[in-house]
Amino acid sequence: MPAQGRSGESPQARGRELARIGRQLWQETGSVNKAAVELMDRYPDIPSLQAHRYACGLSQDQAAVRYNEVTKHQTHLGGTSINAWETWARARGSSGSPPSFSSLLILASAYGGGPLGVADERLSPSDLIAEAYERLSPEDQLSLKRFTEADASRQPVEPRAAAVRHPDRLEHQAVPAEDDVIGPDFELAAPTVEYGSPEICVYSLPNPRPGRLLNLSWAAFGYGIERLIQQIKNVGRRLDVDACFGINEAGLVMATFLASAQFGRCPIGYLKCSKSRDFITLDPASTYPELPEAPSIVLCDFEVKHADVVGFVTREIRKRYPGAEIYFAVFGAMTKERNLEVAGFDDLTGADIIRAAGFKAVFIAATMSPPGIEPPLELR
């Protein structure tokens, strides 16, 4: 259940009130998904999984009954399981337990019935765990992605909106309208070098299918790298870099482009991360070029969400290269709220993670919403 709200209000009382509000929103919108989104906008502490239950006006025990009805009572789920899943979705530690892919499918069907259980709204299981997607097991992430892609292929194709171009900001690279939707530019103050300009020009990546990964084309990928290059050029001083390191394959591609286009074909390092739930290790396949003492390094990552991958990797780099001066270039940074044009750096989900890493400067191409973005060819 959500944390205690108004003074003196118990979690149980707040839960009943939120279920009442959720049901009212469903009556106004006629959609469980829209009601859940509105509920999360009003109460940011509520995870998507819980918001969809509230949009049906259900308690945890009632949700469990609905779950068993969908399976024709071949399961005997209780309210404690619903609570464990919602606790996991809300927390970032080891609390609760994640629902399996099959359980998400059943929940999507159960909540699609609405408050009365007779509606036929098609909910995506990805919508239920939008902000917690990356904490699922790799197997369930892949299953969800394949299911979502197959489901999308069965839906009517809507005309793609025209891309917003910024020829005054990016003269040599524009994303064709038929490829991707690029949101507007906005200024963001990011950590930077001493006497450097903290203002970087960032753009948003609005997702036309909330709750689903936003697939990027090569044009959109190149557009983001061009944006990073412009930020690096305008940091306020020339950056002489000894190496570019890429985190996983997508980061490696970014590092390759930056090393070639901006840093005179400097050496390239590769950091292959193996992630199992909340544990991260570096694979022996990682490569470390020979560098001078106290080198200057640009670390490249495709996206920053909740997990402290970049902090772990940075500590490993500093162990191997004592005194290293590290800059950070990331393609997509997730925002805490649904508004992608954030007012400040601390409105990013990974702000604390990035600050704690102690980078000399930070470069960000775009902001994104949960569950994130997918690079071309499914680079990892």
General description of the model:
The protein has 12 helices and 11 strands. It has helices spanning 11-29, 32-42, 48-55, 60-70, 79-90, 101-111, 125-128, 138-154, 218-233, 248-261, 309-320, 351-357, and strands at 185-189, 199-204, 214-215, 243-247, 268-271, 273-276, 279-282, 296-304, 325-334, 362-368, 373-374. The relative contact order is 0.10. α4 (60-70) crosses α5 (79-90), α4 (60-70) crosses α6 (101-111) and α11 (309-320) runs parallel beside α12 (351-357). A 7-stranded mixed sheet has the order 1-2-10-9-8-4-5. The chain folds into 2 domains: 11-154, no CATH class; 185-378, Rossmann fold. It is of the alpha/beta class. The chain is elongated and about 65 Å long.
Could you give the topology of this structure?
Layout: H1 11-29, H2 32-42, H3 48-55, H4 60-70, H5 79-90, H6 101-111, H7 125-128, H8 138-154, E1 185-189, E2 199-204, E3 214-215, H9 218-233, E4 243-247, H10 248-261, E5 268-271, E6 273-276, E7 279-282, E8 296-304, H11 309-320, E9 325-334, H12 351-357, E10 362-368, E11 373-374
Parallel strand pairs: 2-10, 3-11, 4-5, 4-8, 8-9, 9-10
Antiparallel strand pairs: 1-2, 6-7
Helix pairs in contact: 1-2, 1-3, 2-3, 4-5, 4-6, 11-12
